[in-house]
Structure formats: structure tokens, C-alpha cells
Amino acid sequence: MVELLSEIIVKLISSDVFDKGKILDVGCGEGSHLNQVIGKLQKKTRIKFDGVGIDISKEGIQVASKEYPNNVWCVGDLAKNPFMDKKFDIILNILSASNYSEFNRIISDNGILIKVVPGSNYLKELRKLFYYKTDKESYSNEKVLNHFNNNFPLVDKEQIQYTVALDRIDLENLIKMTPLSWSATEKKVKRALDIGINKITVEFTAMYGENGHKKL
Ligand SMILES: C[S@@+](CC[C@H](N)C(=O)[O-])C[C@H]1O[C@@H](n2cnc3c(N)ncnc32)[C@H](O)[C@@H]1O
After folding, report:
1. What's the CA-to-centroid distance between 120 and ligand 1, angstroms?
2. How far apart are the C-alpha atoms of 110 and 128, rounded to whole Å?
3. What global pTM score does this model have?
4. TM spans, by residue (predicted)?
5. Which of 38, 46, 67, 104 is the most buried (most CB within 10 A)?
6. Quick check: is 215 in a domain?
7. Domain count, the chain
């Protein structure tokens, strides 16, 4: 995913125009995505990026500040963030809630917003087991995409899909972590473990827009 994000950024920014920029990860969790994206951008461009991450989880920010001290990390609510207007050239919003009025306020002129959401095949093996023949068996991110386009000028979107090999412990951790299991019955969760899924599909859509771009 970080490779895709860095490619989108490189495609949209012009290194002739600026030699340093500010990148914000909203809902950054434990910070590894922001850190990796900046690492990739350092290799692909001559722009020096300052990274800032914000998350409402104190625990996530504690991990981020310890692991990646070169970036700035803050605990805060994305809907009431402490940043000044037009401060960021790039805003990342990965698998996290959004607040477009704040994104529009803090993004610079011509700044880029990239939002990553699950695709319809994301964890499809678990979705099938937990929600077989229910309305949750399939998922579409179309509403999120439309919401983005109604609130920020959408330029394009890209998909990535891959599979990840799992052993039983990974599977147990994944099942505990994913909201997909939260409303599944205990019987179905047990069945998923017993069946022993050994690989899982991951699919993401990265939708991106450019401030000042003409709306589609
Ligand atoms: C699924 S995690 C994704 C974390 C990270 N972006 C990643 O991809 O690894 C969603 C994150 O959004 C954060 N979050 C939820 N509501 C938030 C809010 N109102 N303000 C800031 N962060 C929030 C959570 O604490 C969590 O770290």
C-alpha cells in the first residue's frame, strides 16, 4: 500500500515547484504508514517532507513517537484538530474516519488528499464465512467514494489487491481485530478458526483529489 501511496504522490506533485513539503496522516494509528511513505518519497523525489501524524488514541501515538522520532505526533480528534489553515501539502487518511471541512481548511492550495478504504474483496474469506447469504456478504465502497467526490475534487482512484499467508495465531489475531467479527456469532467465529483459513485477501482503494482541481 505504501508503494501505491508514494506513486500517487509522485505523479501529482511537481518537484520543480517546491523543494520541501508537509505531509499529515490523519488517524495515523501507530505511525508506520506515514513513516514508510516519507521514506519512499525521500528515495523517489528531491523534496524534503516533514511528517505529522494525529490520532485520537494515546497508545497509538505513544508507539509512533517512540518508533519514529523524526516525525511530529499528536493525540487529537481529527474533527477538532489544532492545525493552522492551509498548512499541509499532502493529507493521508488511511482506513480512518474523515472530516472534509477540516481537510479543506488545513490543506494548502493545490494540496493532495489521499483516502484509503477497503475494497470489496477485503478479507472476503471472512466476510463469506461470517455473513454468508446476508446483506453483509458483499461490500461496496461506492458511497465513500461519492462522499469524497461531493466534498473534495476527486482526481482518480487506484486499487491494489494481494493475499497474505496466515498461520493459526495470525488468523486468531485478525479475527479479534476486524470489525467484521464483532457482530458474528461465536459459533461462526469458532468455525472460521477450525476451517483453518491459511491465506486472506487484502484489497484497498486509494481515492485521491487535488485542492483547486475542477470537480468531476
Ligand atoms: C483502522 S485504524 C487505522 C490506523 C492507521 N491509519 C493504519 O492504517 O494503520 C483507525 C484509526 O483512526 C483513529 N481514529 C478514530 N477516530 C478518530 C478521531 N476522531 N480522530 C483521530 N483519530 C481517530 C483510531 O484511533 C485508529 O488509530
Report:
1. 20
2. 41
3. 0.92
4. none
5. 38
6. no
7. 1
Ligand 1 atom having least distance to the Cα of 79 = 19
Other CB atoms within 10 Å distance of the CB of residue 33: 19
Residue 55 CA, ligand 1 centroid: distance in Å: 6
Range of the structural domain that residue 49 is part of: 2-210
Q: How many CA atoms lie within 13 A of 59 on its CB side?
A: 0
- Domain-embedded: residue 152: yes
Cell of 67: 518508533
From 34, 35, 55, the mutation candidate for ligand 1 (largest count of ligand atoms within 8 A of CB) is 55
Cα 128 to ligand 1 centre (Å): 26
Confidence of residue 137 (pLDDT cuts 50, 70, 90): confident
Question: Closest by alpha carbon to 20, among 89, 120, 109?
Answer: 89
Q: What is the CA(59)–ligand 1 centre distance, in A?
A: 11
- For residue 108, which amino acid is it? S
